[in-house]
Amino acid sequence: MVVLFGWLYSYFWYYIGQNEELIKTYLTQILIIIIIFVILASLIYIKIKKP
Fold it and tell me: Which among 20, 23, 30, 36 is most buried, taking Cβ atoms within 10 Å?
């Protein structure tokens, strides 16, 4: 079980190494979307909260 987990872990990091640029761009896109969503949600919340 531990050997399998270690193998999966090393394979996972190997995969990240192979596709580093792809993963970086993908993660930055996700972060941008999350930030925009949070800003929009807070703006909507402020507008609703105001009497």
Answer: 23
